[in-house]
Amino acid sequence: MRIITAISPRPRLMAFVIASPSSPWLEYGWWLECDRRSKWAGKRREPAESGGAVLDPVTVSELDLALVHALQVRPRASWSDLAPLLGATAVTLARRWERLTGEGLAWVSAVPGPAFAHGGCTAFVFLRCAPAARERLAARVAELPEAVTVELLAPGRADLMLDVLASDPGTVHRFVDEELAALPDVLDVECVFATSLYAEGSRWRLGSLDASQLSVLGRPRAGDAAGTPLADLSALDRALLDALVRDGRTRLTELAGLTGTSAATARRRLHRLTTGGAVAFRCDVAPAVSGLPVSVTFRGHAPAHDVNRLHRTLATLTECRLLAAVTGAANVLATYWLRDIGAVQQRETAACAHLPALRITERVLGTRTVKRMGHLLDGAGRRTGVRPIRPW
Question: How many CB atoms are located within 10 Å of the residue 204 CB?
Fold first, then answer.
C-alpha cells in the first residue's frame, strides 16, 4: 500500500491517496484542519488502472504552494525575481520547482492567448460510448491534438467531455464528424460552441499569496486581443509554440537549440507572440496541490439579457475554472473545482440564489481528467506526458 499526503495552509488541508496492489481502486481523502479541529472533508474512489498504484509519497509545503501561485501570476518569472517575494533563494526555488515538475504536481505550458478569442474557435464536445469502452475511448481521443482536454464523466447522458480548440467552426465540424463520430466506440456526439469565455484555467489562482505579495508581483500583462493574426504565424513561430506547450519555462537558449535559430531571434519572436496575444502561459497543478479534487460542470439556461450579468457574478467565485456562454438550449457552461462532492449542491444553490433567472439543467461530475491542455495525467491528476496542442 502506498500513501500520498499533501499539506496546504489557510486552512490546512491534508490529503491522501491510498493504492493497494490487491485492490482495483484508488482511495482519495481530505481533512480540513481549522483551529486544531479536524473535519472530514471528502473521499472518493477511482479505478487504479491509470497507474496510480505506483505513486511515491509526496508532501507539498507552504513554500511550494506560494511558488505555484506566483507562477500562476507570472509563469515565466525568473527565480531571482521571485526569491525576495517568497523569502527563499533562487537556488531553493529552482530546486523546489524541479521537484514539483518531476513528480507531475505542477507545470507551466503555453496556451492560446487573447487573440484566439477573435481568430480561433472553442467548442465543448460530449461523447457517449458503451461502459466497457470508456477508458479505451478516452485514451484514443487523448492522442488527438484538437481535443486539448479530455475528462471522464460519471455515467449519465455522456461518458466523456472534451475541450476542442481549432482555427474556425468548420474545422471543429470536420473534426467532430470525420474523426470523433467515426471512432468505433462512439455512440453519440453533442457539440456546443463557446460564444464568449468569461473564465478559463489561466486565470484561476491557488490563493496561497497574500494581497501584499500579489501587489509586488503586479497584474499579469495581457496580450493584445486584436494582435497577431493566427494565420500569420510562421513555421518558426509554430515550432516555438510546440516547445513551449511542452514546457512553458523553457529558456531562450534552449528554445533556440530546439528550433534551430538564435537566442536573439527566439526572444524577438516570443515577444511578438505574447504581446500580440497569440500565446499566453499558465501554471497547472495536480489535486494534491490544489486541494480541490472534485470537478463538476454545470450546464444551464439563462435569458439572453441576463447572461452577461450572470457570468460576471459566477466568474468571481474562487472555485470557478471555466465559464462560457455557449450555443444550444443550455446557454451557460461552468466548471468548478471543489473540495468535496457535498459542495456541488452548495455551489448550485448559492448560484441560483444570487441569480434567480438561472436554471441548471445538468450537473456533470468529472471522475478523472485524462488530458488537460495537452498534458496527459494519471489517476491522481499528476502529469505523465504531453501531446502538444496545435490550435494556432
Answer: 21
